[in-house]
Write a structure and sequence with these properties.
- This protein has 317 residues and is of the alpha+beta class.
- A hairpin with a 6-residue loop joins strand 6 and strand 7.
- The protein has a five-stranded mixed sheet with strand order 1-5-4-2-3. It has a two-stranded antiparallel sheet with strand order 6-7.
- 52% of the residues lie in helices and 8% in strands.
- This is OTU domain-containing protein.
Length: 317
């Protein structure tokens, strides 16, 4: 198959569809709107099928609504139903791992009976493999889509790319490729005219059974955002703990001797109640931890602090 160059403006998935259709009146914005409508109508279906692979649909829908935003697996599956045709997703064998098998899948439109006919989309990168690895910590991940066409001398061209008659035209349009300089028949996907129908969907088992995450730019951004949020939450929790300790220290400093003694008695009673509820093994473990902590604190004391503590103990006794 021959890859066809399309604009690398993050609308590349929709540019690839327009390139294959030959319909210059169609725009990426129109396809984005139709894809978004498909998500809204069948949100539960797409969440059930793909959330464990590329995350929840809500973030994807926001992304689809923005022009020049990169597309992923969700959009390919939705476009299959929007265009009422089969779409074959092809991923190169670069840094290939078993969990990427779902990226080599055919997304079938249920009412399109000829399974062998599908338009082909290729996951690619705008840089060379060396350049892509250099800007991504030595890893390769796709950031571009390209349409694939069979060469015109291939006997299977018509089987894969011919399209039934479109209204008002009895011929299949042709498109000159930039690689072989010859005309190749391409199939025109039809937009879904049955917007109010409830359809049953089909998804390849490789997509349904996959539980690993996709390694595309958008998913990486989501993972980085999740890590950042976790880090911020941990920082907030630690700050709250420090504030609580400071408040307790301030209360102890402001307490009268009677209140301080009352708090010590309550603390001893709570500690005794906890010890009484412990099993023998847990009690022994706590004693060991207490001895270790006490030894650590004593080791950190200065000679003056040690002498001061001894004097305090002598006064008490």
């Amino acid at each position: 198959m021959i890859p066809i160059e399309v604009a690398a403006d993050d609308n590349c998935l929709y540019n690839s569809i327009i390139c294959l259709s030959g319909n210059t009146a169609s725009t990426p914005s129109e396809l984005r709107v139709r894809t978004l409508i498909e998500f809204v109508k069948n949100e539960i279906f797409y969440n059930n099928r793909f959330m464990h692979i590329v995350g929840p649909l809500n973030g994807v829908m926001k992304n689809v609504a923005r022009n020049f935003a990169f597309s992923e697996l969700y959009e390919i599956a939705a476009l299959s139903n929007v265009l009422k045709c089969n779409i074959r997703s092809i991923h190169p064998i670069i840094d290939y791992r078993p969990h990427l098998s779902f990226m080599n899948s055919t997304f079938e439109y249920p009412r399109y009976s000829i399974v062998s006919k599908a338009i082909c989309l290729f996951w690619a990168h705008t840089e060379s493999e060396t350049g892509a690895r250099r800007i991504n910590a030595g890893n390769w991940a796709p950031n571009h889509f390209m349409p694939l066409l069979l060469p015109s001398d291939n006997s299977q061209s018509q089987d894969h790319l011919v399209q039934p008659k479109i209204s008002g035209s009895g011929s299949t349009p042709t498109k000159a490729t930039t690689k072989n300089n010859s005309l190749t028949q391409v199939r025109i996907p039809q937009f879904n005219q049955e917007d109010d129908e409830t359809r049953s969907f089909q998804v390849p088992s490789t997509v349904i059974m996959t539980t690993n995450e996709i390694t595309t730019p958008r998913t990486k951004r989501r993972l980085q955002l999740a890590e950042t949020c976790t880090s911020v939450e941990s920082t907030i929790v630690e700050q709250k703990r420090m504030q609580a300790r400071e408040r307790m220290a301030a209360k102890r400093a402001a307490a009268t001797p009677e209140e301080a003694e009352r708090q010590r008695i309550l603390a001893r009673e709570r500690s005794a109640a906890r010890r009484a509820a412990l099993t023998q093994e847990k009690a022994e473990k706590q004693r060991t931890l207490a001895r270790d902590r006490s030894a650590t604190r004593r080791a950190l004391l200065t000679p003056e602090e040690v002498e001061q503590r001894r004097a305090t103990i002598r006064e008490i006794h």
